[in-house]
Amino acid sequence: MRRICTILARGGSKGVPGKNIRPLGGKPLIAHSIVQALASGLFETVAVSSDDEAILRAAEEAGADELVLRPADLASDTAPKLPAILHCVEEVEKRHGHSDVVVDLQPTAPLREPSDIQGAVALLEESGAPNVITGSPAKCSPYFSLVEERADGTVGLSKPVDPPLARRQDAPRTFDMNGSVYVWRREVLTADMKLFQPGTRLYEMPEERSVDIDTALDFEFAAFLMGRRRA
């Protein structure tokens, strides 16, 4: 199978300014995802899409095969991600031909391992699933400890069942999506740009590899875990 890896990184982050090129563990944040993609040995092409020239330069220095300048309408705060992924894939395919599998790596998830990418892709290709997402076991179960606020201000379990479950072990397993790895069959990405498809599967990752950097505190936590791993 021909596989493309996309890594989408906008400039102008509000939570952590310049986060995609901010140093983490001695290299720009985005470089970690590029290195992991290359180390997985899965891809004909590793492509980085951005509206920011500084990010594209950092991506080139980290070894990305293709740099795609993202149009402004696909790089705003409100622009959905899937059309931007498809734009990147189509630009790469103009130069390298059609692909069978598309893997998108979130640049803000630097603690994944190449084996996580390999496992998610293997799950897609061996199960026949249309797409695969990644996640870690949920900290709060909607059946026991995740509550939501009602219109009148009161709260209740997010997912109550009748009769109530007596043991946590009897509840379905639930996961926190970690945004680390997304895998699609190419034809599914084109035909129906929705994340959840009939048959979507989840590849489980441990919590310590599931940090998604959205705030300055997330950045500090990722740096701590990366330092502990190296020690």
Automatic annotation (TrEMBL):
Cross-referenced SUPFAM superfamilies: Nucleotide-diphospho-sugar transferases
Transmembrane segments: none
GO molecular function, one term: N-acylneuraminate cytidylyltransferase activity
A Pfam family hit: CTP_transf_3
Protein name in UniProt: Posttranslational modification protein
